[in-house]
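PROTOCOL LOG
Step 1. Enter all chains and additional molecules of the complex.
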Amino acid sequence: MYIIIAGCGKVGASLVNKLSEEGHDVVVIDRDENNFSRLGSGSNCMTIIGIPIDEDVLKEAGIEKADALAAVTVDDNTNIMIAQIAQQLYHVPFVIMQTDDPEKQRALAAMGLRTVCSTTLTVEAFFTALKKGETE
Amino acid sequence: MRIMIIGGGNVGYYLTKSLSAEKHHIMIVEEDRSRCEQVVSDLGSKRIEATCGDGTDLECLRKAGIFNTDVLVAVTGHDQDNLTACQLAKNYFGVKQTISRVKNPKNIRVFEKLGVDSVISSTERIAGIINQELDWTDVNKLLRDRSYNVRLREITVEQGSAFEHKCLKDLGLPKGLILIAVLREDQAIIPNGATCLKAGDMIVIWGDEADIASTFGQRVYS
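Step 2. Run joint prediction.
Step 3. Record the structure below.
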């Protein structure tokens, strides 16, 4: 699969490493070149320095032929904009984005955006662990 | 109308000032507390409510009165924040009309396609005006260079001017002058004798330079 990852923070970089290990064609975009140092030395993905909400940058990353895109920058609104451009303007078959606001996640789902909410996942993990601790 | 403005920078500030003067009710949302307080203390009026918070946060939008908003105007300095505010307002809260500023002119098309009702880029507006100005200048330079005494001029019909509310046939234009277009809002009207002028119309005149000057007054152009 041809996959674009927007944002090379901790989440983005780990995702890129895992996907390239599995043999996918991965392109990662970040506005800060220094963030690419997070990528594993064995990673053979393509890197693009640029603002990922810029349509020209997304085109350079190959959005017209991408099979999937994950918007995982640290800014929710940037992720929303990238995800919508990918989904509605370029019809990328699979688009997913990160948010840290559970309520926004519900609003975005109503707008047809697929999201992963770090807060919800963390809370669930804690909740499950605590419940489990209780019964042990 | 009840208008919510997201972003209390320069654009948001002056928009609040001029719209509240026109009897609109303004709800302004600004993240920076001191900026927010400044808007209230400078412009303080019964028609202005300020909320300090993130205009893309659902709870903040509710607190600011999104359920009673007729129009949402997003004028922060970040295109992604403006888009998100408009989309949440429209798709989640059912606000009828959304207007957004974009910093990057390339985003005009993106915003329009994603459903923002009106998209404004000051960069593009200014560039457009300059280009238009250059076009006229080029035409006139060419005419001047070849020593023709005809010129192409753009003249705005001012409120209260002698031309306002007049039909072309009653303008008494000298024979050598042709009014080629009336630019009204988004429309370019090819006029005839029955076309009436309104304040704010931009009229494009072709004709003898001296005739233009004597008819429309020297002060209109330099």
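Step 4. Note key features.
Chain A is about 45% helix and 20% strand.
The mean pLDDT of chain A is 94.
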